């Protein structure tokens, strides 16, 4: 039991929890452990085997509990890729297990299992997945896409991921529904509905 009276300060990193909780907060350039890791100013609060890793210039990501959730970024290419990287921060995963956010800024996954937001370019993408399993938002330049519940639903990436631009789309539940290269489109429930 930890009891603190007054102010507390630390340099380097603060580790709270058992061996599987990894790092709570890191203010240094990078800290890693055998059970998970955190790089570039992120927060992992509770859970097991959760990981935050990102390249220089991104960060401030958060994982709140859950199991084997991951937020990462990797700067590839040059030119406008560097511009997009400046907005790769502020994503959050809350609970669930094996959920992944990669190269997506200000995006959210809440609960569920094996859901992913995986983009070809980094940036301020503002995508959301709530619950369900194996749901995926992918592509390149799109923003504001939402999947709520269901299983195996997809928005984005059919063919060249760098050419894909999916904006303002919604899938609500159902199974194996897909939206590709669309804007302001919706699928609510059903099975294997496609809009391209």
Keyphrases for this structure?
single chain; 196 residues; mainly beta; eight-stranded parallel β-sheet; 1 helix; 20 strands
Model description:
The protein is mainly beta. It contains one helix and 20 strands. The strands form four sheets. An eight-stranded parallel beta sheet has the order 5-7-9-11-13-15-17-19, with no helix packed on it. An eight-stranded parallel beta sheet has the order 6-8-10-12-14-16-18-20, with no helix packed on it. The longest helix is centred in the middle third of the chain and has 6 residues, at 80-85. The model is unreliable at 11-36 and 76-84 (pLDDT under 50).
Which percent band covers the strand fraction? 25-35%
Provide mean pLDDT, rounded.
77
Report how far apart the termini are.
Answer: 56 Å
Can you tell me the residue ranges where pLDDT is under 50 for at least 5 consecutive residues? 11-36, 76-84
Read across the widest sheet, the strand sequence of neighbours is 5-7-9-11-13-15-17-19
Q: Gyration radius, to the nearest Å?
A: 18 Å
Shape: globular
Q: Output the structural class.
A: mainly beta
Largest sheet: 8 strands, parallel
Total number of helical segments? 1
- Give the % helix: under 10%
User: How many strands appear in the DSSP assignment?
Assistant: 20
Quick summary of this structure?
The protein is mainly β. It has one helix at residues 80-85, and strands at 13-14, 25-26, 30-33, 36-39, 43-45, 51-53, 62-64, 70-72, 92-94, 100-102, 108-110, 116-119, 128-130, 136-139, 146-148, 154-155, 170-172, 178-179, 186-188, 194-195.
């Amino acid at each position: 039991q930890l009891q603190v009276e007054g102010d507390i300060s630390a340099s380097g990193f603060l580790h709270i929890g058992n061996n599987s909780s990894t790092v709570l907060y890191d203010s240094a350039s990078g800290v890693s452990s055998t059970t998970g890791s955190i790089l570039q100013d992120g927060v992992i609060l509770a859970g097991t085997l959760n990981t935050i890793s990102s390249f220089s210039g991104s960060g401030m990501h958060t994982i709140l509990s859950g199991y084997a959730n991951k937020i990462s970024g990797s700067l590839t290419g040059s030119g406008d890729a560097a511009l997009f990287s400046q907005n790769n921060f502020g994503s959050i995963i809350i609970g669930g297990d094996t959920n992944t956010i990669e190269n997506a800024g200000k995006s959210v996954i809440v609960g569920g299992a094996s859901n992913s937001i995986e983009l070809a370019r980094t940036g301020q993408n503002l995508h959301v997945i709530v619950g369900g399993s194996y749901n995926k938002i992918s592509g390149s330049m799109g923003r504001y896409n939402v999947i709520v519940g269901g299983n195996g639903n997809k928005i984005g990436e059919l063919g060249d991921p760098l050419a894909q631009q999916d904006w303002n789309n919604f899938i609500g539940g159902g199974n194996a529904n897909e939206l590709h290269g669309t804007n302001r489109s919706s699928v609510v429930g059903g099975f294997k509905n496609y809009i391209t």
